Amino acid sequence: MPPELPAGLFAIAHRAGNEPARLAEAVAAGALAIEADLWLHRGHIEVRHTKTAGPLPILWDRWELRPGWRPRLRLPELLEAAPPGVLLHLDLKGWDDRLGPAVREAMAALAPGRPYLVSAQRWSLLEPFHAVEEALVVHSIGSARRFERIARHLEGRRAAAVAIHRELLTQERAGRLQAVSEAVLTWPVNDPALLGPLAALGVRGVISDSLAVVRAVASAGAAG
């Protein structure tokens, strides 16, 4: 069945799917959607935000180094850990064009009928999902240059959703995105004080590293 976004403003727990403990904490905090980062590495779909370092046995991300020889979370394990009622947000990473088809086929085999969001800043990775009924495709925008390209890329089609970096989001840009998409998401949103102004811009979903934000959104939803 096609994915349905939660009613009203909702929170996506950013990167919470990358580690089972963080996923459980986010679900306990009331997150209705969990984001996980997917890479294709040596034929396996790995769940992590860190990058590989060529032949070196390390994983890295900005100021973080991790040993690369330890077992890595894979997509089947993520699906097993995520409760069925939680909407998974799969963010595709890297430059390997085989990742999109691999994720599409794996989701069809491992979780047939389960709705999910799929996003990428490299939009070509999203092409395999446009005909998948269970997938809601999210075009991510991380630069002003990419924002200017979104309408031309869509070629008159209306996107199911777009996600834009919060530093790029203005009232004028929010209006332009609403004209070409059904829902606007933004990241990172780590301060509950931002929720009101973002909702006023018409933002539907906030992508947050903060459990305080997740709880605030969940509380507001329960009260409404």
UniProtKB/TrEMBL annotation:
<protein>
    <recommendedName>
        <fullName>Glycerophosphodiester phosphodiesterase</fullName>
    </recommendedName>
</protein>
<dbReference type="InterPro" id="IPR017946">
    <property type="entry name" value="PLC-like_Pdiesterase_TIM-brl"/>
</dbReference>
